[in-house]
Amino acid sequence: MTDEQGKKLQESIDGLTAKQTALEAENRKLRERAAVSDASSMVQSAVANERLHPATKSRLIRDLPLRAPLTESGDLDRAKFTEAVKAAVKEEAEYAESLTGGPRVTGMGPGGAGEDIKPEDAKKRLKESALRMGLTEKGAEVYANGRA
Fold first, then answer.
1. Domain residue limits, the chain
2. Labelling 73: which of 46, 97, 119, 143 has CA 20 to 30 A away?
3. The whole model's pTM is what?
């Protein structure tokens, strides 16, 4: 083999090596995009049945896939990501509960056990209420006592 042929062969090898490197980089980018897409689907499924505010769900679906762990080959590490999603959902639920005080009814008047009313006083109040609504005396009695 002559020097000229050796140079041509080396140039050919260098060109192919550069193409291979570029293709490997492009392939890695495509794998990462596919991993983010898979991660997005996983987050959507994970938060679908959770009792979280819709804005929180949207934020998790938007943000978590961007932090998805990848394997050396660029694929989604499903096991690690599943754990990360569970932890993020739990953290968000705890945060929301710390702000709202958890699942409780609010804005419905004063809390507490309420006043103790004797049954006869309750019937008297119901009858008075029925009279104020325009029922007759007999109608108010039926209203207060219920059907016989």
1. 21-100, 116-148
2. 46
3. 0.55
